[in-house]
């Protein structure tokens, strides 16, 4: 059996955030930092994605290092190795120096190397990860799909009912909608098994459901 070739490495701008973007998820952002305004404009014009990654240290908005008040040092930033491609679906510019964008989550990726440019933008050399394999829901997890369908209907969301039969899609929608700790959201994103991801969501819901 021949080995499958690894996906090629891609150079991507990174956007560290205090959230986790899942494949097929929606993310709305207001962009006002200089380091991101040009990046978002270029991404939108070219139709290329950028990478959304979960912050481990630092702030979404770049901060000066308060321990060194008399120099140009900035506080350290670090972020997770696994993130998600963000594809811009809508961009508006309500005023100079402000962009509003709506993005859709694409494939997950793993960062192989990273570099922070002089003006603060992070660039990463990344390798995309395989999409979740289609995985039908086992009978014991059907209530999770049914509850999600009811919730989305209440929110007025247009949902392809076929997606409600897939472990990965159902798990991802629960993960992004629940008030999970950021570290747990990141751990669930990194799981390669959509069935295990959904089982863990079910366990969390069982433990935290209102009596």
Q: Please indicate the percent range of residues in DSSP E strands (runs of 2 or more).
A: 25-35%
Provide the CATH superfamily of the largest domain: LON domain-like
Largest sheet: 5 strands, mixed, barrel
* The CATH top-level class label of the largest domain: Mainly Beta
Give the helix proportion (percent range): 25-40%
Outline type: globular
Q: Would you report the number of β strands?
A: 7
Could you give the order of the helices and strands? Answer: EEHEEEEEHHHH
CATH architecture label name of the largest domain? Roll
Outline of this structure?
Helices cover 29% and strands 30% of the residues.
What does this structure look like?
It is a single chain. The chain is α+β, with helices and mostly antiparallel strands. It has 2 domains: 119 residues, Archaeosine Trna-guanine Transglycosylase, Chain: A, domain 4, CATH 2.30.130.40; 70 residues, LON domain-like fold (Orthogonal Bundle), CATH 1.10.4060.10. The chain has 5 helices and 7 strands; from the N terminus they run ββαβββββαααα. It has a 5-stranded mixed β-barrel. Helix 3 packs across helix 5. The longest helix has 15 residues. The termini are far apart.
Helix-strand blueprint:
Blueprint: E1 10-17, E2 26-31, H1 34-46, E3 50-57, E4 78-79, E5 82-95, E6 98-116, E7 122-128, H2 142-154, H3 167-177, H4 182-190, H5 194-208
Parallel strand pairs: 1-3
Antiparallel strand pairs: 1-7, 2-6, 3-4, 3-5, 5-6, 6-7
Helix pairs in contact: 3-5
């Amino acid at each position: 059996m021949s080995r499958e070739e690894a996906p090629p490495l891609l150079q991507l701008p990174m956007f560290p955030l205090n959230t986790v973007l899942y494949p097929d998820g929606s993310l709305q952002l207001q962009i006002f930092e200089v380091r991101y305004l040009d990046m978002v404009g270029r991404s939108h014009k070219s139709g290329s994605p950028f990478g959304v990654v979960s912050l481990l240290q630092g702030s979404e908005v770049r901060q000066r290092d308060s321990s060194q008040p008399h120099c140009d040092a900035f506080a350290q930033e670090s972020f997770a190795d696994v993130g998600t491609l963000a594809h811009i679906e809508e961009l508006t510019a309500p005023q100079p120096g402000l962009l509003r964008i709506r993005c859709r989550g694409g494939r997950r990726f793993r960062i192989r190397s990273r570099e922070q440019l002089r003006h603060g933008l992070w660039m990463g050399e990344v390798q995309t990860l395989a999409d979740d394999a289609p995985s039908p829901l086992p009978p014991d997890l059907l209530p999770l799909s049914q509850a999600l369908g009811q919730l989305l209907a209440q929110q007025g969301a247009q949902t392809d009912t076929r997606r409600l039969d897939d472990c990965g899609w159902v798990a991802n929608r629960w993960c992004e909608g629940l008030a999970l700790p950021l570290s747990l959201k990141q751990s669930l994103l990194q799981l390669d098994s959509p069935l295990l991801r959904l089982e863990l969501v079910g366990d969390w819901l069982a433990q935290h459901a209102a009596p």
